[in-house]
Amino acid sequence: MRKDKKGFTLIELMVVIVIIGILAAIAIPKLFGMSAKAKASEVGPAAGTWSKLQQAYVIEKGEVGDAVTIAYTPPGATESSNTGSTPNFSYSVSVGGTTSSTFSAVNATPLGECTLNQGTWSATGTISGQGAFKPVPVNPIANCANLTPNWMNLQ
Predict the structure, then answer these.
(1) What phi and psi, each to the nearest 5 degrees, are found at residue 101?
(2) What is the pTM of this model?
(3) pLDDT by residue (tens digit) across 32-61?
């Protein structure tokens, strides 16, 4: 009488383990890159809100205002303030006279490929000759620009 043996051979199990190892070696670095990109994604909307509130204030008053004046609440702040912070960034808004304002976000921890601590995303807006407020973003430090690809298109 012949017995049918059921189960996997050692070779089959080793092949499966090697395949899983290769997939993990590819997926894990991608996963860490996505988490850094997700953390950095809070900068764009924060700067966009600042820019839009500043534009509205310039249209109404003809000058720029600080964060409290334009009713901007930086991420992590509980009320209108010129500063705020989250676990990922420290935010600040400063004013240079009546014609320019600067938004900045400094990362509190390294973000994936952006390994330098204290990387800064900043944008300075000035009132143009036509009375419009136009922010000009500064490219973040090396290896950080790819985390916020729309940063240079700040409106």
Answers:
(1) -140, 145
(2) 0.76
(3) 767 778 888 888 889 999 999 999 999 999
